[in-house]
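Fill in residues.
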């Protein structure tokens, strides 16, 4: 049995009004989701479902942590997850399941809706675009120093110094070339 099959909310037989659902996400969920962005973590997913004649409004709140790879040093990095969003579920006769991130269309004969994909995408969206270790109280990066040394990541001051050195060397080589041309005349 696929663990993602456990992330379902009933549609048929659910009475009109508000209903609460809770799901727990762990490493097995992320492994089954198949995305390479998140390597592990834990989160609690709370869903308030409001059923009306027009469909089902699912109000999600996801809190926890996600383990990803640091963009700078490639070491594991744990980031907080805090996401709130709404997914609308509507039934459409003769239509296969369709999902655009905000509305999920389901066939009229479906008895439940699987929200695993929405949960995974929501957790991914809650993460920052750039995922790097922070700095300690002295402003020193918490990234793996061995990896930083291998990548030769330099500070802005070091980069400016390297650029000035290159400009100086370029100027000298240009001067030497001009002198050589002058001597050949």
């Amino acid at each position: 049995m696929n663990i993602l099959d456990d992330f379902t909310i009933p549609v048929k037989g659910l009475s009109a009004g508000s209903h609460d659902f809770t799901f727990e996400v762990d490493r097995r969920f992320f492994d089954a989701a198949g995305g390479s962005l998140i390597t592990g973590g834990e989160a609690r997913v709370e869903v308030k479902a409001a059923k009306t004649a027009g469909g089902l409004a699912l109000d999600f709140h996801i809190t926890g942590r996600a383990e990803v790879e640091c963009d700078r040093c490639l070491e594991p990095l744990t980031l907080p997850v805090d996401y709130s969003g709404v997914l609308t579920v509507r039934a459409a006769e003769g239509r296969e399941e369709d999902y655009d991130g905000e509305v999920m269309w389901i066939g009229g004969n479906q008895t439940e809706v699987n929200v695993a994909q929405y949960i995974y995408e929501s957790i991914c969206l809650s993460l920052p675009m750039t995922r790097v270790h922070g700095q300690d109280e002295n402003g020193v990066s918490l990234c793996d120093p061995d990896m930083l040394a291998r990548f030769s990541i330099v500070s802005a001051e070091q980069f400016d110094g390297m650029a000035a050195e290159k400009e100086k060397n370029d100027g000298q080589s240009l001067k030497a070339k001009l002198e050589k041309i002058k001597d050949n005349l």
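The first helix runs from residue 27 to 33.
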